[in-house]
Structures are given as structure tokens and as C-alpha cells.
Amino acid sequence: MTTENLAERLTLYGTAPDTEIAALVKETGLERVVAALVDEVLFRCDDPVNTTPVDIALEVGHGEETHRTVLRMSRGEPIRVIGGDDPSVVIRRHLQFALTDLVRRLYGPLHAQHSGDFTDVFLPDRPDDLSRLRDILDSTHQAGGTLLSGCTAQAPGLGALSVRYGSDKWASFHWYTQHYENHFAKYRDRPVRILEIGIGGYADDLGGPSLKMWKRYFHRGMVFGLDLFDKSALDQSRLRALTGDQGDPTALRELAAEHGPFDIVIDDGSHENEHVRVSFDALFPYVRPGGLYVIEDLQTSYWPRFGGTSGPVTAPDTSVGLLKRLLDDIHYAEFDPKPDEPRTITQSEVIGVHTYHNIAFVEKGVNGETSIPAWMDDEAWKALGAITPEEGREEAQSR
């Protein structure tokens, strides 16, 4: 089993019984499972604030077996795994978890209670220099809090995560995360698959801030990013950077067939109006029913250099023109006269279009509502006690 497959399977075990977790450990081995969990913990941890280095031994037990990982924490440095206890480090702490408890802490429901499911060995050795006791106690407490911040499914809101990881979706050129919070909340506890077109950073920088934001927000999610440039150095547990051209529909369909279907697709790519349309047509079939397709930066519909239309009314081949077409598709059953050809996928499966300043959310489902029966003529309406539109206009004019 690959590391990527193990990470994906673990996202499903947050609500699994102990027997299924035990079967996974038997199949994979405790060391590999713990390594995947530690990798997830380190990604979620807050930045260390302790000024004096602290080594924490994280011990994870399963049955009669225990695996131990020693982590070094110090302000201004990334948390790192070290080989073992270092006698030169004065401050050491041990935290012990049962494997099943740690799995549920990471991948279980957001609001589950987890008090009392770990053992803490605080300062196992008496410090030689008691004049440093206050600093030692403070640093130990802070480092323990940092580690526990990573042992939870809870996360800040998207606004705070956007700032933390450097995404431009909040408090920059855009104010998108408030709308993302509104539409994404119902997916947050699910093992979702997300594809974002456009990783950022252009050719000279890896980018990836939004991908990390999605990974932290969706604690059970698998996150994929697509970029024209190779950003595979960003790859980590639950996050994969793919290389491809969003203007190539064949490549998009092949990508989606391999890594989809997706619960959420976000287009934050080139913002070229043609690319937006090509990507939507290629990828919308690979969005699961109940999922969302998001289009960012609709302003380029009005910018000719991106293939947009200057002036107050956009052309049909722009991003906004696409959304207008989808609104017509939702109302396919109301067309008069009724079309003879079969419904298109968007006429059958688009059930909502929510548009805000420069961002839109397209809902996928079953657009199965029918129209008023064709035989409901004026005579039938009168039989129900209604008046015809013409009679209504005449009555209004007489008042």
C-alpha cells in the first residue's frame, strides 16, 4: 500500500469500529500507520512558541505494541522528528495515546469529545538548575499545547487559515472565504475529494497556499491541485500536485478519471474565459451528485485581454455568460415550445447557481422538476378560479 493510499484510508477510519482499525494495523504494520498519523499531526500543529527547546516523546500504543516518535520543538523552527532522546536537552515530555483514540482525534467528527484519552508524563527528570524552573515549566507547557493543537480535527475558520497559509482568498484582492464557509460547511466532516485548478506561485515559486488551507479545513479530505508547471515538490500526505493544461479537455478528462470523482472542483486557474468554459465542460461530469463546481475571478468576463467583453453586458462565451446559460438550463422544463432533443448534462444535473462578487458556486444534483402541464390552458385556469394574464392586466389598468 502506498503512503498516499494509506493516508486516504485513514481518513475513513475516524468513525470506524476498533476491529477495522486493528485490521488496518495488521495489514500495514503499526510503524507505518503511526508514521502517517504523526505526519498529519505535524501538518496541523500550531507554530511552536517555546523559547527553550523541548523534546516530546509521542508514544502510540496498540495492543501489546507501542511505537515511539521523538519531536523537537522550538520557536522559530519547524517541528522535526529526531532519532531519540538527546541528553543535552533539559526539557523532555512524554505523551501517550492509544492508536484508536488518535485516529478518532484526527479523523473523527469535528465536535466529538476526547478528554482523558491520553497519558501525560510531565518533566520526568528533576532539573539540576532550579533557577530555570519557571522557564522550563513555561516551555514544557507551551510545547505540549503545540503538539495537542495538531491532535485534533478542529481548525480555525477559512479566513484565519487563508492568512496562516498565505492564500489570497481573504483580506487581499478577494473576500471569498466567507462564501466558501457558507457553502463548504456541510462537507467539512466528510472524506471529500477536492480539485483546485491553479496552484499559484507561477513558474518560479511552488505556491500551494490554498491547497494547504483546504487540507487543514477538510480534516478528512484528499486535495489535488492542477497547474501548468510541475509543482510536485508540494506533494505530501493528503495533498497531490498534478501537472496539466486546463485548456486541454482530453487531459482534464483523463485526470478526472484517474483521481476523481470529486466532491468539489475550484477553478482558480488562468481566468481566461475560454479556459473556464473548457474546464467546466470537461470536469463537471466528474463532480459527484451533491457536489459543487466553483468559478473564481469572474471579473475577467469584463476584461478583453482575458477574452472578456468590455461594457455592462458580457458575451455568451465569457464566464458570466456560462453562468447565464446554466440559469437557462435549470429552467429547461419551462422552455416554450418544448425542445425535441434530449436534455444536456447541465440541464439534467445543475440544480443551483449562487453568484457573489467575482465568485460563483454551481450545485450538482438531479434537476427533475417538471413544468405546469401543457394542457393547462386559460379554460383550465378558470376552472381553478384563476384569471388569465390578460384579464389580470385589464383589471390592473382599470384601477
From TrEMBL:
Residues 16-115 form the Methyltransferase MycE N-terminal domain. One of its GO terms (molecular function) is methyltransferase activity. Signal peptide: none annotated. Pathway: Antibiotic biosynthesis. GO terms for biological process: antibiotic biosynthetic process; methylation. Keywords: Antibiotic biosynthesis, Methyltransferase, S-adenosyl-L-methionine, Transferase. Gene3D superfamilies: 3.30.1050.30, Vaccinia Virus protein VP39. This is Methyltransferase MycE N-terminal domain-containing protein. The lineage of its organism: Bacteria, Bacillati, Actinomycetota, Actinomycetes, Kitasatosporales.
